[in-house]
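Batch manifest, entry 17 of 40.
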Amino acid sequence: MTTHGGFEPVFCTIVPPHVLDKLSQAEDPALAGPARRTLQRDAFERTQRRLTTVLGASAVASVADGEPQRTVHDARHGTDLPGHKVRGEGDKPGKDATVNRAYAGLGATFELLLTAYQRDSIDGNGLPLDATVHYDRDYNNAFWNGEQMVFGDGDGEIFLDFTIPIDVIGHELVHGVTQYTANLTYFGQPGALNESVSDVFGALIKQYTLGQTAAEADWLIGAGLLAPRVTGVALRSMKEPGTAYDDDVLGKDPQPATMDDFVRTGRDNGGVHINSGIPNHAFYLAATALGGHAWERAGQVWYDVLTGGELKEQAMFTDFATLTVKAARERFGDGEELDAVSKAWEQVGVRTL
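Output type: structure tokens
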């Protein structure tokens, strides 16, 4: 494992800006209003993240003991972080289902990292896991701000409570793992890899929690998050990128599945939430080709690359793919794992060196 002493934490949200941009243009003010306020709040938090990076964040003590240290706070629909402490490690569940889901999601992420990859929390050294729920009013997002998780309740019209999908919780926390390891730059292809890694391990956390094999999993990111009125099943599909939603208000899922449809754009940090569909699809293809529990072989290869020290901050898709082939060979030899990983990248049009 490697950690970058000069890492620069980024502000990462589960709902892409292009989705909120589209929603903010809706004729119905009940839909457009929350989206616009969410975009404004995200812009503010993004600026705060940059300021914190420049000034230096307060140190958080980590103790590697193999046990989670979870704390859930309630913002009470305000925006001051972390808010009021409502549940600490070992406390019994309360009446607030959102608090309980956040607590369980933090635990599930910790458990997969420790059990499957012998990683003690997201920094590898027992970092306490903090979360804040009931953030702002009608806030249509969840984010990792470099120090903690934050969940909105959604507007009830397009998005529901952001603690409902456990993979959303896992996705955001894994941005922390990336922050403490490869620290992939949050723009263009490196940024799309950053997003994809979070989708991959978010999906694995859900599968691990449900005890699912690769064949049994739905490979959806954010299933259960969209309100009933939305024509869609999730935020993203790793199995079929570009098919997660096709809605009059949200528009159509823009994710490509292969390099043939790679999207060139200056928005969304160079399309980090869009082109992530390509490495997402590669992982799905590798995992389903291998079968069984995806966290055991395909997931292990991806984890080895993320934490192995060779993945550069500016890595492109080809760089990442090449390292997965190398990692598959080093860990499993010249067998079906190597074949599955190599063919997956070939199928999505990413060459390996």
